[in-house]
Amino acid sequence: MFDMMKMMGKVKEVQDRVREAQGRLENITVEGEAAAGMVKVVANCKKQLVSLDIDDSLVNAESKTILSDLIVAAVNNAMDKADERSKEEIKKSTEGMMPNIPGMDLGNLFGQ
């Protein structure tokens, strides 16, 4: 026989584990590069740019730090907007499909 309470407990457990995993994503980093290593970036797994290094031969040394900070800020701003738009699209496409049960946030199951 179907045990609704047991299923709800499992859903809650899955939600908790997803939240824990998402909390760790900020501390996991990956590196990328372009132009044979002349441009290098470090990003965390929450899709945030952590650092940017541009080879001196590509820019004026005086403007390098400012340019790097501006690029990091612009990329992170775009990522924030992309995440928000993704949430809106998922909400729109799943509207009315799932019952609105207080405390049950299925958005986390979709990586949001």
From TrEMBL:
Keywords tagged on the record: Cytoplasm, DNA-binding
According to the record, the residues making up region (Disordered) are 84-104
InterPro entries, per database record? YbaB-like_sf (IPR036894), YbaB/EbfC (IPR004401)
Q: Which Gene3D superfamilies does its entry note?
A: Nucleoid-associated protein YbaB-like domain
**Family annotation (Pfam families):** YbaB_DNA_bd
UniProt main location, coarse:
cytoplasm
User: The organism sits in which domain of life?
Assistant: Bacteria
Protein's cellular compartments? Cytoplasm, Nucleoid
What SUPFAM superfamilies does the database record attribute to this sequence? YbaB-like
The annotated regions of Basic and acidic residues compositional bias extend over 84-94
Q: How does it assemble?
A: Homodimer.
Tell me the function of this protein: Binds to DNA and alters its conformation. May be involved in regulation of gene expression, nucleoid organization and DNA protection.
Q: Which family does it belong to?
A: Belongs to the YbaB/EbfC family.
Q: What is this protein called?
A: Nucleoid-associated protein PEPS_04460
User: Organism, per UniProt?
Assistant: Persicobacter psychrovividus
